[in-house]
Automatic annotation (TrEMBL), chain A:
Keywords: Oxidoreductase. The keyword Flavoprotein does not apply. This is Proline dehydrogenase. It comes from Nostocoides japonicum T1-X7. Pfam families: Fer2_4 (PF13510). One of its GO terms (molecular function) is iron-sulfur cluster binding. InterPro entries: 2Fe-2S-bd_N, 2Fe-2S_ferredoxin-like_sf.
TrEMBL record, chain B:
One of its GO terms (molecular function) is oxidoreductase activity. Keywords: Oxidoreductase. Residues 403-454 form the BFD-like [2Fe-2S]-binding domain. It comes from the Bacteria. The keyword Oxidoreductase applies. Pfam families: Fer2_BFD, Pyr_redox_2. The keyword Oxidoreductase applies. Residues 5-339 form the FAD/NAD(P)-binding domain. This is Putative oxidase. Coiled coil: none annotated. InterPro entries: BFD-like_2Fe2S-bd_dom, BFD-like_2Fe2S-bd_dom_sf, FAD/NAD-bd_sf, FAD/NAD-binding_dom, Metab_Enz_Cyan_OpOx_G3PDH, Opine_Oxase_asu/HCN_bsu.
């Protein structure tokens, strides 16, 4: 199934199907991490998949600390890797 | 409709059954759930997308094959829709309840609204407050996780997380996936992945099937569960998925994402054996050690909790009534037992609300049937908890540098130090000394690991009280203040 809709993740376009979360669409694209941890700078992505663990935090349209497993992907959305606590 | 008779938090099997039963007997209901579709975890469905935006959307139809007992789900959904159309019920989906409190002799829930599909144009957030004389907490459960080497690598998920990706988004978490931990839930996850085109390299079930031998009476009372088991065994064989019992994943390997897992056999005492380990290439792995009930809102409301034999906190209740007047519960919050039990409990709890609100004596024969069914399913759940306990030697799968708390990046060495040198004796003291449990998830993920480390140290279970999370979900100030 070809997706016609895309959002921007850092410097690439990621296709998604309406109804999918940002985290699900990135996973379908084989992208597994979109955050680095504050202390050790380690990559993180989905863990619980249901909004409990907050491992999947990401910056969406400039707003940090959004749970990628819950935020629904939208056309033209700008998703950026979140570094540390996400404040620039 | 202003002010319903009952507000139900959670639209999983328990909350749905409760809401629909309450409406059928003349009560009005407000049903609040964080998800975009009703169904909870068991009947998780994709977020519905309507109109022009819907081209190519994930549909309920394409995930139907992953589901069981959909006729029951559809019947509940259509009764709920009828109730909404008739002005007898309101549903607030995409609303995360962050607290509950007393209001005018009843209960009020406060929720923040999540952004809808394409909702980046919608004003962010928005707050909902609904109050009713009766509150039903049917908030379900989440996967219980324990730390192991490399578990913080991207691609390592919970078993439920794999399932949520499949059912909610029609996405397989990887192309080569391992499923591990313990419990019958691992089987549908593996089958669902295989049906979705992933290669499942193995299901690594820590407990040997012989552990069920002691619980044959409980199994005999629940023949439907046996049939379900046989169905999954056949499906595993059909998809050539190896089921390896008495084994656990002791390490996830990789630099920036999981590339392989190491699997060890467990000895008779539940310790991973050093010999005969195998390393299997994967690009995703899901591990689940059963489920932890979500009791936060009930705890906030002041409801008493008890602990099950395996140390999990559950809301204390009788026929759905908690220790606090006007507050009820149903489903996994009363102890993990699966969807069939959640359905029965949801209906039972509705009858208790009905009796308390109206003095109306519901159908006695139906109540007897429900009580029998609940008792049988609970006996099965108790047997399952014992047959699928965490192996005693789980800690051998961790190293000193393995993170116990993923949020605050607290390694096991720090927890060991708190336990050995600072004499911490429960998870709360460990938290104060190490920050484990102080991060974004408020200890939801690391609590099981912390409590298990405490238990290993003190030689008995950590019996300290349930963690109080006054804010069930982190909320943004701007949502509370109502500013966009
Ligand atoms: C990720 C996951 C996947 C699972 N998949 C399966 C499966 O495929 N098969 C199976 O047999 N069992 C599965 N389970 C087990 C599951 O616990 C039961 O099968 C069943 O769903 C329990 O029903 P319930 O109504 O008690 O709770 P749930 O189905 O968990 O429903 C609880 C509902 O409450 C909502 N909720 C919780 N807190 C809040 C809040 N603060 N504000 C608003 N809403 C809230 C949740 O969004 C959820 O919809 C899964 C569990 C998890 C955690
Ligand atoms: S994956 Fe756990 S909160 Fe998103």
């Amino acid at each position: 199934m070809t997706a016609l809709t895309t959002f921007r993740f850092d410097d690439r376009d990621v296709p998604y199907r309406p109804g999918q979360s940002v985290g699900a669409a990135l996973t379908a694209c084989d992208i597994r991490s979109w955050r680095t941890t504050p202390r050790e700078g380690r990559p993180r992505g989905l863990f619980c998949g249901i909004g409990i663990c907050y491992d999947c935090l990401v910056t969406v349209d400039g707003m940090p600390n959004q749970r990628a497993c819950l935020v629904l992907a939208a056309d033209g959305m700008r998703v950026t890797t979140q570094e540390g606590v996400g404040e620039r | 409709m202003t002010g319903a008779d009952v507000v139900v938090v959670g639209a999983g099997p328990a909350g749905l059954a409760c809401a629909v039963t309450a409406v059928r007997h003349g009560l009005t209901v407000d049903l609040v759930d964080a998800g975009w579709a009703v169904g909870g975890q068991y009947w998780r469905h994709p977020a519905p997308v309507e109109g022009a935006d819907g081209a190519g959307a994930v549909t309920a139809g394409e995930v139907a094959h992953l589901h069981h007992d959909l006729p029951t789900y559809r019947a509940l959904c259509s009764r709920l829709e009828e109730a909404v159309a008739a002005g007898r019920a309101r549903t607030f989906l995409g609303h995360e309840v962050w607290t509950v409190g007393r209001r005018d002799g009843g209960w009020e829930v406060a929720a923040t609204q999540r952004r809808a599909a394409g909702g980046r144009h919608a004003p962010g957030g928005g707050e909902l407050r609904v109050a009713a004389p009766a509150l039903v907490v049917a908030t379900g459960a989440y996967d219980t996780s324990l730390p192991f080497r490399g578990w913080d690598l991207p691609g390592v998920m919970t078993a439920g997380g794999l399932q949520a990706l499949l059912k909610g988004h029609a996405v397989a978490a990887g192309r080569r996936v391992a499923v591990a931990g313990s419990g019958p839930f691992l089987l549908p996850v593996a089958v669902g992945l295989a049906e979705s085109g992933a290669e499942v390299v193995g299901v690594y079930e820590a407990n040997p099937p012989t552990r069920w031998g002691r619980h044959l009476p409980a199994v005999a009372r629940n023949v439907a569960k046996l049939a379900e088991g046989a169905e999954y065994a056949a499906a595993l064989a059909r998809h050539r998925i190896p089921l390896r019992t008495g084994r656990m994943v002791v390490e996830a390997l990789g630099t920036d994402r999981v590339e392989a897992v190491t699997v060890a056999r467990l000895d008779a005492t539940g310790r991973p054996r050093p010999d005969g380990r195998t390393t299997v290439a994967v690009d995703a792995v899901g591990v689940g050690w059963g489920f932890t009930p979500v009791v936060d809102l009930a705890v906030t409301a002041g409801c008493a909790t008890t602990r099950t034999d395996d140390g999990r906190h559950v809301v204390a209740e009788t026929e759905g009534r908690t220790s606090v007047e006007g507050v009820y519960t149903a489903g996994e919050t009363t102890g993990v037992g699966g969807a069939a039990l959640a359905l029965a409990e949801g209906e039972r709890t509705a009858y208790s609300v009905l009796a308390d609100r109206t003095g109306h004596d519901p159908d006695a024969a139906r109540l007897r049937h429900l009580d029998r069914r609940i008792a049988a399913l609970r006996s099965f759940a108790a047997a399952m908890a014992q047959a699928h306990a965490v192996p005693a030697g789980w800690v051998d799968a961790t190293a000193a540098e393995t993170l116990v708390c993923r949020c605050e990046e607290v390694p096991r060495a720090a927890v060991d130090h708190a336990l050995r040198d600072r004499e911490a004796r429960d998870a709360r003291q460990v938290k104060q000394l190490t920050r484990a449990g102080m991060g974004w998830c408020q200890g939801r993920v690391c609590e099981a690991g912390c409590r298990a480390l405490v238990a290993d140290r003190i030689g008995r279970p950590d019996r300290s009280a349930a963690t109080e999370r006054l804010v069930a979900m982190p909320v943004r100030m701007r949502d509370l203040l109502g500013t966009p």
